[in-house]
């Protein structure tokens, strides 16, 4: 195991599937150096990367985007948010990456991610990472990004957390999302600032919920250095059947999680006379 992977797995007390996911990310980046190249990638270069990765990960046959994107499918309850913290810690320690863009599928998870990336909270994702004890990663959100400059005052890591459902609502009717609009405070749009970063890593939480949405299509223009998808459901619903993701590099389903004791055996609970159409999407999520 790589020294950075080993150190981070120990400090964050990663569970076996989390540590394996981190090891697979390390293996991909080390065996295919082009993944770490911030230059614009041609279709031919992307195809070459896919071919190289497929030798290690047979379940990866396509990035499904115009930039390298890999999916880590872990059952709910295993700890995807902690894994995000491990990914960020590793990418900073091993390669010096400082800019991250985390997408939440809805308001509930958006609020939870902000809490978990905030120091001195019960599930703080960087607890135990000594490098972040003195220079705490700066959290920028979809609610405060317009009030900051385009350079971290701390000269440390920047973790941007945005709610894709809000962006989806902004782009209805072909409108431009707010993040793309010129900010007089910044002198450019925040989107332009992010797109100019050579080390921007896009982390997509519960990506199956918005994979083909208008908001994610708009954000694809960020052309990040790397995309990391996390989900417990690595497929989308097609017209006649489910369509599996083509970029999976780690698959740890619910059955294995139950067998390994990380997740309790689930029970199905129903409510009499329940009408889902009478509730908003946020109410259903809660």
Regions with little confidence, pLDDT below 50 for 5+ residues: none
Order of strands across the main sheet: 3-4-2-5-6-1-9
Shape: globular
β-sheet strand percentage: 15-25%
- Tally of alpha and pi helices: 11
User: What oligomeric state is this?
Assistant: single chain
What summary fits the major beta sheet? 7 strands, parallel
What is the terminal separation in angstroms? Answer: 39 Å
Please sum up the structure shown.
It contains eleven helices and nine strands.
Structure description:
The chain is 34% helix and 16% strand. With 286 residues, it is α/β, with parallel strands linked by helices. The strands form two sheets. It has a seven-stranded parallel beta sheet. Strands 7-8 form a two-stranded antiparallel sheet. Strand 5 (200-205), helix 9 and strand 6 (226-231) form a beta-alpha-beta unit. Helix 1 (3-11) packs antiparallel against helix 4 (80-95). The chain is globular. The N and C termini lie far apart (39 Å).
Layout of SSEs?
Blueprint: H1 3-11, H2 16-31, H3 43-54, E1 69-74, H4 80-95, E2 99-104, H5 107-116, H6 131-134, E3 138-141, E4 158-163, H7 164-170, H8 190-195, E5 200-205, H9 214-219, E6 226-231, E7 235-237, E8 242-244, E9 248-252, H10 254-259, H11 281-285
Parallel strand pairs: 1-6, 1-9, 2-4, 2-5, 3-4, 5-6
Antiparallel strand pairs: 7-8
Helix pairs in contact: 1-4, 2-4
